[in-house]
Amino acid sequence: MIYQKDTAEPSYLDYKGKYKGIFSWIFSTDHKRIALLYMFSILTFFAIGATLGLLMKFELIAPGRTIMSAQAYNAFFTLHGIIMIFAVVIPGLPAVFGNFLLPIMIGAKDVAFPRINLLSWYLYVTGVSLVVISQFTGQGPPDTGWTFYAPYSFRTAGNMLPAVFGAFVLGFSSILTGLNFLVTIHRMRAPGMTWLKMPLFPWTLYATGWVQLLATPIIGITLLMIVAERTLHIGFFDPTLGGDPLLYQHLFWTYSHPAVYIMILPAMGAISEIITTYSHKAIFGYKFMIASVLAIAFVGYFIWGHHMFTSGMSGTALYTFSLLTFIVAVPSAIKVFNWIATMHQGSIDLQTPFYWAMAFLFVFMIGGFSGLILGSLAANVHLHNTHFVVAHFHFIVFGGTGFAFFGAMHYWYPKITGRMYDTRWANIGLVLFFIGFITLYGPMFYLGFKGMPRRYYDYDEVFHAGNIVSTMGSWVLYSGLVIIVINLFASLKSKIKAPSDPWGGKTLEWTIPSPPPVENFEEIPTVTKGPYNYS
Amino acid sequence: MTGETHRDDLTSKTGMWLFLFTEMLLFGGLFVVYSVYRFRNPVAFHLAAQELSVTIGTINTIILLTSSTMIAMSITALQTKNKKLTLFLLGITILLGLAFLVNKYFEWGGHIKEHIYPGSSILALRGQGDVLFFGLYFFMTGLHALHIIIGLIFIAIITAKIFRNKITFNNYVLLENSGLYWHLVDLIWIFLYPLFYLIT
């Protein structure tokens, strides 16, 4: 690529390449532009998924039919699940902030395979399109839930094939992102950046990369088996053909439990960066943070069985999975303690991303503790398939990953756009979002404990009060979300330009201009100190 | 677009190795399914496996192993700047790959003629163990054959590039990578062969 070398390099936003207009984005192999492509697509699908959730909550405001039929409700929670899991939270932090910041934070000009990076976005769009197509073609939308449990997933008249194949393609996109990051981290760190001088966000992306790489093929082949089962009638999981539906659940969760760590590990990384920056103090227990990330990624492979405590397993399997589930909570707790210890005696700068990090800690802990309740065998029998489970995983997946995503958005916004956002509106949005979140999902713990099952559009009269509160929470949450997004978009026109280091961060991304130039660094830096050098 | 793309063969090969891990796990999931159903239907699997032709299986194993040797030798040939020999060896690799597919075609055709294929009502009469065995047989060897086809396409592209001097003795990492991929396809067959043909 040839461009005029001025005194100051053009930023990646102003850069004029071979293509004009939209093509300068969708044909770009610049990791920063691909990150923004991901950001806009993910935000779009997040808006769709959130709207589906809002409508589902409205259906649940009163017993009986309110605005949709039982079948429509089934289709809604299926689409909500597929979009939110496969198209929003799994790619969320790695594909957006990982793509944008990983090369910069380790002092590289781009990822190892820029063209594969762009390919992964194409695959992402293809996969989501297939899922969307499944809604409008064939004999009605899929209604199995995002888990595609056998044998219903090949008995239902719903249009499963495009949805399942779409999820397969999304998995492939995720594998390519993970592979790219692993190679980038191994091969392209700046001179002097040893493994133990690497910031924590890249470290979490490294662990995530391995999980993406080693777990995703399992769901890939499992989904292909569902496709083969529906088209060729091979009896992999159909009991009438000798197959075993339980085996499907095992294979499905062998991926889908580690997938939870694909969602939460980069979130933990982003929170680590935010807390250390606004505390103006090196992260407490840097090595322990790394060890706990790797431990979570490793142990996370061996606990899938806790999704199946009531499905039928041997006693030994039950005890083992339960014990391992408790063990994986230990490194997570280490991280929480280290974050709090980082704040201790720091000089804390109360900025919006810091508030997001605090909100994250609060909801993440509730999500984590409720996970321990579900991980104990006896309690699980009572709570399985109730709203308690729904509340738990929304606290972890939406509360953990979602809060970290918005925290990261506000933290790196000046770097990505070169502008400062309106702090007051950002804070108002956050407060509404937080209150709405607790009001929406809090009552679900109670409802589930009382026995309200998940995935029904109707419920008994005794659950009415809790559902009214929960539905009202969804309105507050949604308004907060709208304010946050509008504020971020409106701030693109802000007159206040961002300096290269608005928050006093110490990692490499704050040493280059905002927005970064095309090549990131005029000269690849040589790293001599650790990542959080506040002394 | 970023301005420069500097060449780093080790980076490229690391990426390929990681990709091969995912391929292994893809088949790994199928091996798990196979093991579970073999354990559940020992007699049916035992009898069904005897219907497969060990001869064709063995011939195909020899074909694939030879082709792997050929592509490995072609890399050495390119390193010693012997373009003619490289092209010759790659040509043999492709021919052997095609021969494997032809064998597979006749093998599958034979089964289908005997009404042994997924969804066949005659196969269904023989019981669930047989349905599972042949379902897995067609799915796993089919997926493997798909990998052979993809591998052959890659090798054909590489061969064309060597022919047009786009790949030479000092930038042969693409040839190495397709060699790695071809060895993986070979390796997976090394597992499929005993599972379906030899363990009876």
Give the low-confidence spans of chain A: 1-7
* Helix content bin of chain B: over 70%
Q: What is the CATH architecture descriptor of chain B?
A: Up-down Bundle
Overall pLDDT metric of chain A:
93
Major sheet details of chain A? none
Tell me the number of strands of chain B: 0
What order do the helices and strands of chain A follow?
HHHHHHHHHHHHHHHH
Number of DSSP helices of chain B? 7
Question: Approximately how much helix is present in the residues of chain A?
Answer: 55-70%
CATH architecture classification name of chain A: Up-down Bundle
The 3D shape of chain B can be described as elongated
How many helix segments of chain A?
A: 16
CATH homology superfamily name of chain B: Cytochrome c oxidase, subunit III, four-helix bundle
User: What is Rg of chain A?
Assistant: 23 Å
Shape of chain A: globular
Q: Any idea what the radius of gyration of chain B is?
A: 20 Å
CATH superfamily of chain A: Cytochrome c oxidase-like, subunit I domain
CATH class of chain A: Mainly Alpha
In the CATH hierarchy, what is the class of chain B?
A: Mainly Alpha
Mean pLDDT of chain B comes to 92
The assembly state of the depicted protein chains is heterodimer
Brief characterization of the structure:
By secondary structure, chain A is mainly α. Chain A has helices spanning 23-26, 31-59, 70-89, 92-105, 114-136, 152-155, 160-187, 200-232, 245-279, 286-299, 315-343, 352-375, 377-383, 387-417, 423-450, 464-490.
Write the topology of this structure.
The complex is a heterodimer of chains A (535) and B (200).
Chain A lengths: L22 H4 L4 H29 L10 H20 L2 H14 L8 H23 L15 H4 L4 H28 L12 H33 L12 H35 L6 H14 L15 H29 L8 H24 L1 H7 L3 H31 L5 H28 L13 H27 L45
Chain B lengths: L8 H32 L1 H8 L4 H26 L3 H31 L7 H5 L2 H36 L9 H26 L2
Helix pairs in contact in B: 1-6, 1-7, 2-6, 3-4, 3-7, 4-6, 6-7
